[in-house]
Amino acid sequence: MWPPPAYRAHRALSDPAREKAEIWRLLIGLVLVAGVALLCNQVFYETLLSWQGDGAADLAGALLRGDTPVAMYLLLFSFGFMVVGVAVALRVAHHRGLGGVFGDLSLCVSQFRDVLIVLVVVNLVIFALPPWGMGAPLEPNLAPGLWALLLPLSLLAVLVQVSTEEVLFRGYIQQQLAARFRSPLIWMIVPAALFGAGHYMPAEVGSNAGLIALWATVFGLLMADLTARSGTIGPAIAVHFANNVTAIVLISVPDQLSGLALYHSPFALGDEAAVRAWLPVDFGFMLVSWLAARLAIRR
Question: Rounded to the nearest 5 degrees, what angle is found at the Cα of 65, between the Cα atoms of 62 and 68?
């Protein structure tokens, strides 16, 4: 039976999209999302750099590396321009409002809260149990006092970033495909594959590029499953948020997006052997987070 009974809640997201669910509308919508986001980012960064005067080159370099708090805030908050693009695409191509991609807002917020609470507990337990560390001592990054002072804004910035990605992939794309196709094999796999393709970075990670893209694709499938089971994107946002807070705010790699982290990992993304050895552990964290989220939303 399609969709499976466990995914009946997803109809609350896909049914409102059925009236304007032609594939050509989705393709036009994706072009609008990309165009609006690129235009907003170009205007924003060009304006910002023009204000910097002699410091423009330093800021541009920091933005490329993401190695200062200011650069990270600018990068993470600028993801919000993609939400503007989704809103434009929904209105122009589908005659819908942005609110529909979240599902019932009160339910979305309560599911986000419930899943996040469970994930905080699970992660505290995992970090408290042996083995400890990452095979070598962590390297201090931000001073603890400064890190704590910046923490509320850092959490908000990460929330904006992950919410934007979930709005696009598990919200807009998944819902529009589900409105057109009954089979979850289509409306789960296609957005997940696009999400994985966006994480294909051979220049940064070398021979691990395929494995990391595969990791992201599986992550996308698990978030699609949570969205279909819950009927909102709240649980997917919570899992994505917990994952990225760990990777951006707590322990980041030293060579990419490290400006808000309390610690640096003992290896960089370019250390192919070390990253490859750590990927199974990261995959295990992902599965545990998904299972914990499923328990949190079970009614």
Answer: 50
